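Hi V.,

You were right to ask for the full record rather than a summary. Here it is.
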Amino acid sequence: METHDTAAALSAALKGRSRTRVLGLTFDDVVRYFFGGNAAVAVVVLLLILVFLLKEGAGFFEMNASNLNVYRRAGLEYVDLMRRPLDQFAILTRGINDARLARFKALLASGKDVEAANEALKDFDAFADEFGAAAGDARGIVSDLTEVVSAVKVRAQVSADKELEREMLLHAGRKDEAAAVKVDVVDFAREIKVLVEASTGWKAAAGAFESAIRKSTAKAHGAAWAKGDFLLSSTLDKSDIFLKGLPEVEKQMAAWRFDEPVPLHRSFTAFLFGREWLTASFWQDWYGLLPLLSGSLLVSVIAMLFAVPLAISAAIYVSEVATPKEKAVIKPYIEFISAIPSVVLGFFGVAVLGTALRSLSEVSWLQWVPGFPMSERLNALTAGLLLALAAIPTIFSLAEDALTNVPKHFKEASFALGATRFQTLVRVLVPAALSGIISAVLLGFGRVIGETMVVLLCAGNRIAIPDFTQGLGAFFQPVHTMTGIIAQEMGEVAQGSIHYRALFMVGIFLFLISLVINYIAQKVVRRYRISIG
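Predicted structure:
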């Protein structure tokens, strides 16, 4: 009776409280508006961030298109068509040098001294010298033309800056000062005519270049000293492929037109699919997203490969196996990891983990591992391991909650049918909580790909697409990431410049990735809630 009276009194108090009006609002209205207002503030802040990013990034593609137009009209694109085969030839030359070094080491290992080893490689060295000298004349022509078009580009940039200065003075109403600004308009047609005339020797030099390569490689193919050398044979095969591509370069040069405008969509594709991020270059700045995106994805994949099995197995153990005393120890300690500042994790990677991994890679019986020994202690693996440590608390907490929220009668029904604990875990509890576990993994991935300090300190910061042809060896290569490039370069760029806006475009892309990941995670969570409801 007393319990019934207490419940009735409590119910009446709550009803009276809900009827109490503050400024015309009931208590329930105040609670609803308070939490609804917080949600509205979150949406407004999200929109403000997006608007700010779009505002600062706006104009990048137009500026990049102008940048590409100057690249074409000044003749830099034309000279790059000539330089491309020379760059490919340099790679072939390095391959021959690597083959020579491998032979030299093998001779030393067989008991020969340095003098005898060099004597044995006399024929190889004659071939290497002849091969390397093939590009001499072509390199000289490209070097001379580089100076010509660089001067044209500088004059074009100065002219554009003067034009902008005059427009700003006119906009400010200072007409006299604007009239005093002299703009030297560059006659691109005349400059390109000079360039084409100066490049007439290229065709003859390219022909001699091709002939010299064919001659030297033909000797190597038929020489006895070249047989059985895998590295040399591979380079010679690449040389044959290279020679087949030279006529295509000449066709592109013949079809090139300086006055053909660069379409705006080229600016988009150059950013989204560009393989170079090169700034402050005397030649040409490139803003390509691929090296940064590939670095971010590689580091994130490494982190998830380590974090997901560890975090989910820990969640299963704590939720279904551990005793209350074990839970009281394990769960707080795992969740405490998230309280460690990321900069501290970065310092740990620089001072301890990177050095330890490189020392481990130098152990003789581990040389069969791809990428060992590591050339750099700061690389994708070092950053990925630390990011795994940062992601584990997020994945563990959400996965453990998903497993705990599985209705108890699922487990009871499984035991009643005679299933073991392991069978119940694998066939009942984990499938029932799978949506929640997947959402935990997605949110952990979002935590990893948005990390800045760890990758900035530990990833090596080399702006290049990893060489995935090395398989697992790609894990040990230095990379740069989208977050790292923003943190590293934002403080050094002039506001409103193309470089400044390019960094904001990277931020927009990263923001969209995070939004997509969170959206998918929320969809999975909603499905999870419905399935257990």
